[in-house]
């Protein structure tokens, strides 16, 4: 018997408008099937067919309704008894960037002739330098040869690549090859770190921040429910970063948490923390016995002398993990390659080295980055590759300057841009989703609403500088027209 | 004593460090530094030793240091050895080169995978089974997918595994917090249901005696026993899952090795769409162990107890914790599924199958009971009354052949050795010779 919720009133009226349809009985169905060319069936096919009928019969039997007022049967689906993970239920809507992509697609359907320019998702657009792709092509071809074929690689990454990363980015910082874990990118690494930390740790994030830190924390069960009034998840410490505090949190107001996520140069604000600020941050982490997860994915975009690695700060090795990526340096957003540094000196409260657990995670829940991507990474770190990467980064930096100048000339308060490929534009008193929609509607340019990165992001729009020069110039022209 | 084996390049002081209790705050004996106040994840503490395969790799390294002149033959870790066919690698090389052109450059791909590849998997590998491309999630391999599925399920579900089984199902379950402690006496983790798979029950769990759990992990063709479940066995399994409203996670990574009529996909069984998730991989199918490509099928009809579609949550996991498989690997996958590509990779699979036959015959000729080998690239050899690590060590010491001790796959694997059939033909033949001379 189907139970109907009491609050449905007049449902019979609704059904009246639907076409009258009588489901065939099981017997009628079987007879119908018998008429088919069953002599061509193998016994196996017949068995399968009868089994399918058996299941359909079970389904129909479930649906038999004796209530004569109801002329139809509503199909009842099989439900497992497995409870949905309560943590998944806490998540609000979809992950931010697929949402932006959805809105973009909807807009393109609405305006099929519009030339939509995407300065939303931070997706690289310029071709990868040949010195790097030829390294990957060579590796791919080598996999067809006896001498060149390789199977499973070390889950931590190829030794040569680990060594190259250590010497290129951590040369004089005494970070060793064995401290480096090569991965398929920072997003996966963030989740692997969360799996390693488990559900019983507390975390702090900047507000605004890259959504993956918060979302992965929710999924792992570290947080409480989402509180709609403040737009924050319970049990996460949000460290506000705004123009008033120079986009660096006032640490005196931050409660102690086990883990602190910090991204510099920052996505989305574009702000790079100073040496002095990071020294205070490391001290804060030390005083609180916290672990700092430092995201340096945009370090190559720094144009002044802001630190490029947390390990430039003395004492950082005992408090910090650093996550980084080839995505925005080498255009590897689709190729998938990154790394995480876990120093040997980083210890849990019982003295157990964090690196040992991360190694176990990497060996058990991962199987190494693609060997072809790793060959690409190695080519990136050759002298020629490094020079080529710098050129592409320089190209995006020039885009950033153009966007910054545009908004500045229009009288906006503009932040970031100097040390990152993101420009953080202030629209005081306005809802960022409204501004996003208006810009999209009137200029056909996709940006990212600041509130997607946290409540303190509201009133801001993130404009990403990844794009062909022509598109960036065109977008700026349209901004000038809209806001003149 | 805490046995660390996975971190081979760590300095010796840490390597030999005894296990510390987490109750007291201690600075390490070699005074390496100050501790944070972050408590170690208790689930990580529950894990026993290192993950199985890096353990084997470590022993191999030690052995090679001990006997620098010995020609060690590895029939241990199931690592493919034969080159990938040209038709596949050239498409990957072309894709890589095109990334240097304006027209050919691609940035972020859809996290669920390239549309053409998803369609090709649905059409080519699932044929007339009603699997939609939207139900297919392309990944960087099964080992990662297993963990992503565990993230999806969360810590409050119970699981059942075959015994013996591929270790990642158990280890990922421990890490996510679904299990209790490891019990040395039984060799099992509390709160996991172990379903014995022995010759006596035809390597398939006796479902009449199996307690119900939320999730059931089944691998067929099986790693390590090599047994491919029959249609009847899988029908019973689906029936069992439907009656108990459990979710089957069906690992079909070795489907390409099926020789007889055994099903290659759980979805060949009617009614499976409402109870099963299938994971699979290009690793053993196309030699992609290093290239990294796999997929997971989550049917639309699979629902949680509150009616919420599992596929929606899995999609969220994939979008939040992952950023898609490498576009180059995906280009390779597409080439594998062209008609020429399929023929080419299947011929490599056949090569390994021939290896498996040679090894199986060798052990049989020596009077040992051998299982598997027909529908899988693994031979499961019985050494009655002997401990599997002892057999492993003896074989390694006396014939310089690496195998895998059965107990590494669970207590039900004791007295067995898994011999993998991946290797150059001459190595397989040489291994055969050595085994014959040792064991005859």
From TrEMBL, chain B:
UniProt-listed CDD domains: AAT_like (cd00609)
Domain of life, per lineage: Eukaryota
Keywords, alphabetical: Aminotransferase, Pyridoxal phosphate, Transferase
Required co-factors: pyridoxal 5'-phosphate
A Pfam family reported for this protein in Swiss-Prot or TrEMBL: Aminotran_1_2
Residues of the Aminotransferase class I/classII large domain: 71-421
Signal sequence region: none
Cited InterPro entries: Aminotransferase_I/II_large, DapL/ALD1, PyrdxlP-dep_Trfase, PyrdxlP-dep_Trfase_major, PyrdxlP-dep_Trfase_small
Keyword set includes Transferase: yes
Keyword Transferase annotated: yes
PANTHER family, per the entry: AMINOTRANSFERASE
Classification via NCBIfam families: DAPAT_plant (TIGR03542)
Protein name (database record): Aminotransferase class I/classII large domain-containing protein
Gene source species: Vitis vinifera
